Amino acid sequence: MKKEYLMRAAVLLLTVVLWAGMLSAAAGEAAYAVLDGATLTEDVIADEAEDITAECTFSFSNRKQTAAYTKRLTDGKYDTRWRQQDSGQGWLTMRTENADRPIASLYICFDTIPPEWEVQIQESEDWTTVHTGDDAFYHVYVPLEMPTVAVRVLSVKPRTKMQIAEIRAYAPGAIPSAAQVWEPPVEDAEILFLATHADDELIFFGGGIPTYATEKKKAVTVAYLANCGPRRRHELLNGLWSMGVRNHPVISNFPDKHEKTFTAEYKAMGGKNRVMRWVVSLYRRFRPEVVVTHDPKGEYGHVQHRVCAAIAEEAYDQAADPAFDPESAEAYGSWQVQKLYLHLGKENRIEMDWSVPLSSLGGITGLEAAVRAFTYHVSQQEYSMNVTKTGKQYDNRIFGLARTEVGVDTVGGDFLENIPPKAENGKEGNVQ
């Protein structure tokens, strides 16, 4: 068994290398993606782990939860979920009766992540922990060192609620193309794209993320000022993944609000100082050279977009001041962002070109990558706003250099103009 595991691990490692930078795409409301825009060899397809979820039976820590909950976990939708309903250590178990096709890995899409959770396998009558997780990633792929016929996901601390939208079990084989294997956010970022809501990074920043993170292999961090809820979190993860992003985004806990004034918006978000400290901590932790964010007028007037732009500019100075928010200054040090771009900003305007084909994404353009990523935002398709229409109306190619420590742009068309390449400033790129 150990020899088989080592061979399988080698296949997994090789497959990760082969698949670096390739896209996955989701169909409809599927909670798992299929590979898109990439060509797989027959050998790789043959080695890919097979989904055996349908062969498994489920049981839950709350005995009253029955087959209806199994359907919620396997229906491919983000608006249904299994909720832990007991106050103790909540768990769900998957079991297969086919020992010839044991469970070798899990793919879990969390709605609510407990601060500590474990994956356990059953050995005789005992349960053995084989994986310990935290609340870092919402979509998690868990390979099991030893394939098993019974596996369970356990919330470690009593009275901490766990919610799962989708879960899949796989037989032995290479990492399935349906699984997203996220890396932590880039700590030393060259660019921080700060969006307000899920899909704003596509509509208003156009092809920026795929151009810099995937094609140019720059160190990119994507962050969201508002938390739009579980369903839209899943959608934004699928959208980013489809563009080749492999570093998990940073998502705040501020509510998605559309108040009429700054005062009301800040109140709904817990106060201006709370919002400021979050953005300052974001700058200090991820140390971006460049920040790209919203129109000061909120594009179509959205007050939360306006708040995002205003706070981003104020944080430009506050993050460099060690006297502001001493707690994050002690944790990460103070940080001076070098350039701040505001979408549709009036000062020092540049025009980006999102029509350039991206070889890393099969030759589609940055804008086409954003358009395709927007299709994963299934819950937003019924509304009138989208990348093509709204992104043209509020031109997602135009940005103004609002603040700079390195002078104004003279060439234009590049957020990183006047910023030394990562080889010179010692940063590690967002390599796929």
Secondary structure topology:
Elements: H1 2-19, E1 24-25, E2 34-35, H2 42-47, E3 56-60, H3 67-74, E4 82-83, E5 91-96, E6 103-112, E7 117-123, E8 126-133, E9 139-148, E10 150-155, E11 163-170, E12 191-195, H4 200-203, H5 208-215, E13 220-224, H6 230-242, E14 250-251, H7 262-268, H8 272-286, E15 290-293, H9 303-318, H10 326-332, E16 339-343, E17 349-351, H11 366-374, H12 389-393, E18 398-404, H13 422-425
Parallel strand pairs: 12-13, 12-15, 13-14, 15-16
Antiparallel strand pairs: 1-2, 3-5, 4-11, 5-10, 6-9, 6-11, 7-8, 7-10, 16-18, 17-18
CATH class of the largest domain: Alpha Beta
| Strand ordering within the main sheet | 14-13-12-15-16-18-17
The helical percent reads: 25-40%
Total number of domains: 2
- Please state the CA-atom Rg, rounded to the nearest Å: 22 Å
Task: Count the DSSP helices.
Answer: 13
Architecture of the largest domain, CATH level 2? 3-Layer(aba) Sandwich
> What is the residue-mean pLDDT, rounded to a whole number?
88
Principal-axis shape: globular
Q: Which class best fits the helix and strand makeup? A: alpha+beta
Brief characterization of the structure:
Helix content is 28%, strand content 22%.
What do you see in this structure?
- There is one protein chain.
- Helix content is 28%, strand content 22%.
- α5 packs across α11.
- It is α+β, with helices and mostly antiparallel strands and 432 residues long.
- The chain has a seven-stranded mixed β-sheet with strand order 14-13-12-15-16-18-17, with helices on both faces.
- The chain starts with a helix and ends in a 7-residue tail after the last helix.
- α6 links the parallel β13 and β14.
- The chain has two domains: 2-170, Galactose-binding domain-like (Jelly Rolls), CATH 2.60.120.260; 191-425, LmbE-like (Rossmann fold).
